[in-house]
Structure formats: C-alpha cells, structure tokens
Amino acid sequence: MGSATFVHICCMKKRALVQPFQKRWMTYTACGNQESLLPPLILLHGLCEDHTVWDDIVPTLEPHGPVYCLDLPGFGESEPPEEIGMEAYVWAVATLAREQGIQRMALAGHSLGGYVALQSIANLPDMLQGVVLVHSHPFTDTPERAEGRRRSLKILEQGHLERFVRQLFPGLFAPHFAQKHPEMIEKCIRMGLRQPIEGIIAAIKAMQSRQDHTSTLVRFAHPIMAILGSEDNLVPLQETRKAVEQAPLSEVHILEGVGHMSMFEDRQALVEHLIAFWKRLASSNLSR
C-alpha cells in the first residue's frame, strides 16, 4: 500500500521590503505542505522573541499545510519598524502575504503577536480566514501594566538589555515548570538577548498605544480561538474568555498548570488545538 505524499518546502528564509514605505527589510521562513487545502498559517511571536520560538512545533504543523514564521519588525533579522504602532507589524504581515501570493490566511499570535493579529482583523479583514490568540487578549493596559511598561522603557533606554530580559522570562512560566526546567528559562533568555534593544523599545511603545479590540472580536465573522494558561499572570483569564466568546465563531481553551509560554510548557496541547482549528478552517471554507 502506497503512502500519502505532499509537496514539502524545507524551511527557507526569505526577505522582503516592508510595504508601504519599502525602506526596512523583514525576514520570515516558509515551509510546509503546499498542496494542502488548509489556508496558509502565519505564526507571530511575542515580545523579546523571534521566529525561532516556534521551532519545536513547526515540524508537527508543516505536514498539514503551508506554515510561515515571521520575524516582526525590530526582532530577529527584521529591521526596526519605520513608524511606531501596531499597524507597522500589520504591514509586515500584509507584505509577507503579498510576497507569497496569499489571498486568505490564518494568523496565530503569541502575546504581542496576538495584538498584531487583532490589529490585522481591523486592518485586513478580507484577508483573514481565522485567528488564534495564544496567551493574548483584546484589552488595553491596566494602570498597573502601563506603569510596568514605563519602568521597562526606562531600563531599556538606559541600555540595560540583559537586566530587562533576565527579569522578563522567569515570570512568564508557571512556577512549577520554571523550577523543574531552568534550561527552558535560559533558552528564552538567550533568545531575548539576541533581540535589538531598539526593536524591543518600539514594540513596548506600540503596545502602550494599542487600541481595545473587544468590539473588533464581535464584528469578526470568521473563526477565532484563544489558547490561555491557567497560571498566566499577564492575561486576565475570565475577562479574556468572556470577550472572545462574544465573537460569532469562537472557542476558548484553558491549559491547566500552564503560564504564558505553552510552546514550551505544554507543546502537545498547543499543537493539537492549532491543528484542529486549522483543519476546521478548511472545512468551513469548503462548505461555503
């Protein structure tokens, strides 16, 4: 009996000039099953991360469909954004789609990447077939969070990248996981230390000025899924659940014992939810 085959593109790194200014370069990887009926899936990383944060899950995703991992402007090998604001990251998503000839796509965004995905719903509604928020939410900063961002900017503007990164990552994991897997914390710290300080500052300022997207969710006519951690100190669990469930086609999954980093803390659950959601997008598209 023959086995099923698919046209596979080994992960290739690509570069493009970000529209509309065409002055700054962005980098992304492209891989996966190019004959699949599933829409292209674009993975968006969080603050102080780059596309490599998805390295351990992409091999499981790519047999199912086309997968793209973007270095958001100012992170990885992408140059800092031309302008500060969430729209600068949305332009990078749109540029990737244009370069690859993608008309409809699915976005999965972790933390900051989720904010970018929500802004993409507002700016690129006709290009989106589905959205996944991975440890992200639609709200603006609370007063406490806003103060934390101001403190972070002060540290970074004084040039203390290592201090900022080493303070950031340990608190993103559930305490029991952090204690058991200090090597994962160090892996993330090394990733954070690779990021340009200018890019981190730009992203924090963009998050400070981002808009509330609760009404954006209500207007979104396509499937949206939130993957949340029960021990995530950055995402208000019940408020986010309630907001996402206001969307017409929504689902929420809470990963027990997980903090803000399920791609390390519970990779299997994250991948299973992503693949199931992704496959449902193909089914809903065929039924129209």
Q: How would you explain this protein's 3D organization?
A:
The protein has 288 residues and is of the alpha/beta class. It has one domain (11-286): 3-Layer(aba) Sandwich (Rossmann fold), CATH 3.40.50. Helix content is 42%, strand content 19%. The chain is built from twelve helices and eight strands. The protein has helices at 58-61, 86-100, 112-123, 143-157, 161-168, 175-180, 182-193, 197-208, 214-219, 237-244, 262-265, 267-286, and strands spanning 8-17, 25-33, 41-44, 66-71, 105-110, 128-134, 224-229, 250-255. An eight-stranded mixed β-sheet has the order 1-2-4-3-5-6-7-8, with helices on both faces. Strand 7, helix 10 (237-244) and strand 8 form a beta-alpha-beta unit. Helix 2 (86-100) crosses helix 3 (112-123). The longest helix is centred in the last third of the chain and has 20 residues, at 267-286. The radius of gyration is 18 Å and the shape is globular.
Q: In which range does the helix fraction lie?
A: 40-55%
**Spatial strand sequence of the major β-sheet:** 1-2-4-3-5-6-7-8
Q: What is the correct CATH architecture?
A: 3-Layer(aba) Sandwich
Largest sheet: 8 strands, mixed
Q: What's this entry about, in short?
A:
By secondary structure, the protein is of the alpha/beta class. The protein is built from 12 helices and 8 strands. The two termini are 34 Å apart.
